[in-house]
Write a structure and sequence with these properties.
Elements (H helix, E strand, L loop, with lengths): L1 H5 L18 E4 L7 H5 L5 E5 L8 H14 L2 E5 L8 H13 L4 E6 L1 H13 L23 E5 L11 E6 L4 E6 L7 E4 L9 H20 L5 H23 L4 H21 L3 H13 L3 H16 L4 H10 L9 H18 L16 H9 L13 H11 L1
Parallel strand pairs: 1-8, 2-3, 2-4, 4-5, 5-8
Antiparallel strand pairs: 6-7
Length: 398
């Protein structure tokens, strides 16, 4: 029913090609986590539950999850030794622990860093390789990873749905990204009630990042009719429900739709892949500490302006999804309306517009551009670019 509605945007032209894969089971339901043990036991019986302290916005929910897993499986070990994004040594330690405890499934509760860590642990504990060797190892690694299950503690712009993982090297301040189709989560549990613990700022940043990731999925070189249709539906749900939740926190229907938008966003970009906005936001987050979702949102209008002339037709779809009036105007004018629509949304959500509003020195921009250029997603941009052009986008955003 949902996909049928989503396909309306693409129904007026023939499919040129479609490659799409999305194997996870998805449960979106109030109190979905109360029954997590009954479903996880169908995949694994010895559970390693990963939770980063920095992403534990609702610790009471973690207790509910562990209780259910303890009740219905042979055992659940809570691994909460990692305070924030883990480096190489922390991931190696966690992978060794998973192997020694004979875990046969990894469950992650939190946000993007928790999900990336869980996927890395699941892969590392089954293969004889250390984290620092991953950039030099033939990918994908030979042995299948442990299955993973994800429980987002907040709307995570779809990273709960993605087979992409990353590992950060704090010594060299570099990051390794890879994609392995075997790392699609087996199950995704989404309980909209969990997001009630978020304050207005956290919710607005998460929603704005979802908007950014949906648009970047549409603009990706790997986008196709299925991914674009799903991303447009995600965009529509954020547009119509995010501010409702912020004004009416007890509106469970709107809250559920915001959580659904995140899953749909991931269903799109898990195949189309994200691009330059994601790459620059990742580099900015790693090198300056600027919160990732905020970096995604702040950078998006500037990335859209950079790509405008190469993807004007797709911008028309985006403008329409943002309820912009595009009657009786040219395609380029409609494309500009899409950028304006994003900026209007961000103003209403009180999203900052400039990097200079934070403790980021202009002298840091070349280093951010250099790291962003080395993140593989940058190649998904609809327009070829080099480090100098990335720096130009950063200067525009400054």
């Amino acid at each position: 029913m949902l996909l049928a509605g989503a396909f309306k945007a693409a129904s007026q032209y023939m499919f040129e090609w479609v490659h799409y894969q999305f194997p996870p089971r998805i449960f979106i339901e109030k109190n979905a986590t109360h029954k997590i043990g009954t479903l996880v036991k169908e995949v694994g019986n010895r559970v390693l539950l990963v939770a980063l302290k920095s992403e534990l916005s609702n610790p009471d929910e973690l207790a509910v999850i562990k209780t259910s897993l303890d009740k219905y499986t042979a055992g659940c070990i809570l691994y909460d030794d990692m305070a924030t994004r883990p480096g190489h040594k922390e991931l190696d330690t966690a992978a060794h622990f998973a192997k020694q405890s004979r875990a046969d499934i990894v469950v992650a509760y939190g946000g993007r860093d928790s999900f990336h860590a869980a996927k890395a642990i699941a892969l590392l504990c089954k293969n004889d390789v250390f984290t620092e060797d991953l950039p030099h190892s033939p990918m994908p690694l030979k042995k299948n990873p442990l299955p993973v299950a994800h429980v987002p503690a907040a709307p995570s712009m779809g990273e709960e749905s993605s087979p992409v993982f990353s590992v950060y090297n704090p010594d060299t301040r570099t990051v390794f990204f890879s994609q392995d189709w075997r790392l699609f989560p087996s199950i995704i549990f989404v309980d909209p009630n969990i997001t009630s613990a978020l304050n207005e700022g956290e919710l607005s940043r998460a929603g704005a990042a979802n908007l950014a990731a949906s648009i970047e999925s549409i603009l990706s070189r790997k986008a196709n009719d299925i991914t674009t249709s799903i991303a447009l539906r995600s965009l529509d749900l954020v547009q119509k429900n995010l501010q409702v939740v912020m004004k009416e926190p007890n509106n469970i229907a709107a809250r559920t739709n915001v959580s659904l938008a995140s899953v749909l966003c991931g269903m799109a970009h898990s195949n189309s892949m994200l691009g330059i906005c994601y790459s620059i936001a990742s580099a900015t987050n790693l090198l300056t500490g600027l919160e990732f979702h905020l970096a995604m949102a702040l950078l998006l209008p500037h990335v859209m302006e950079y790509n405008l002339t190469t993807s004007a037709g797709r911008y028309v779809q985006i403008a329409r999804a943002l309820d912009e009036d595009i009657k009786d105007i040219t395609v380029i004018e409609a494309a500009i309306k899409a950028v304006e629509g994003v900026r209007k949304n961000y103003l209403e959500l009180k999203i900052p517009q400039r990097l200079s509003e934070f403790e980021i020195a202009k002298e840091d921009l070349p280093e951010i551009a250099d790291l962003a250029y080395r993140i593989p997603m940058v190649k998904n941009s609809p327009r070829d670019l080099d480090k100098n052009e990335i720096e130009t986008i950063l200067i525009a955003a400054y």
